[in-house]
Amino acid sequence: MAMTTIRPASVRDADQLARLRWDFRIEGGAPQPTTLGEFVQEMRAFVGDLLADTAVAYARERRASAALLWPSSRSISFYRRAGFGHEDAPLLLSLEGD
Questions:
Q1: What counts of helices (H) and strands (E) characterise the chain?
Q2: What is the pTM of this model?
Q3: Rounded Cα–Cα distance for residues 38 and 30 (Å)
Q4: Rounded average pLDDT over 7-35
Q5: Cα three-residue angle 89-72-90, rounded to 5 degrees
Q6: Cα distances (angstroms) measured from residue 97 to each of 53, 66, 85, 86, 91
Q7: Residue 18's CB: how many other CB atoms inside 10 A?
Q8: For the chain, does the N or the C end have fewer beta carbons within 10 angstroms?
Q9: DSSP 8-state symbol, 75
């Protein structure tokens, strides 16, 4: 009998975890309004949103006055949706007055 290895997931596992979540939903009878590819993209966006929200909350808890980042060309729209500025780079999110 083969041994099962249990380990923490890593970023490299994200797409496979999304596929497993897709399979779980289908097996449970949940309606699938999208394709598997779209679902994987939605899961990536969800994880990205959660990570950004957690980072901003962490900065606010430590009374940081702002968050500053240099996004890649692919991530600019993501960070703008998260409230970062409209400049090209770096992008700024003011944390004062919240």
A1: 3, 2
A2: 0.61
A3: 16
A4: 86
A5: 15
A6: 17, 11, 16, 19, 18
A7: 20
A8: N
A9: T
pLDDT at 33: 80
Q: What secondary structure letter does DSSP report for 5?
A: P
Which structural domain range is residue 83 located in? Answer: 39-98
Is pLDDT at 7 greater than 80 in this prediction?
A: yes
Q: How many domains does the chain divide into?
A: 1
Residue 9 in any domain: the answer is: no
Task: Give domain status of residue 57, yes or no.
Answer: yes
Instruction: Dump strand ranges (E) for the chain.
Output: 66-69, 91-94
pLDDT in tens, 30-86: 888 889 889 888 888 888 888 888 988 999 999 999 888 888 888 888 888 888 888
Structure-token match 């909350």, residue found: 57
Domain annotation covers residue 20: no
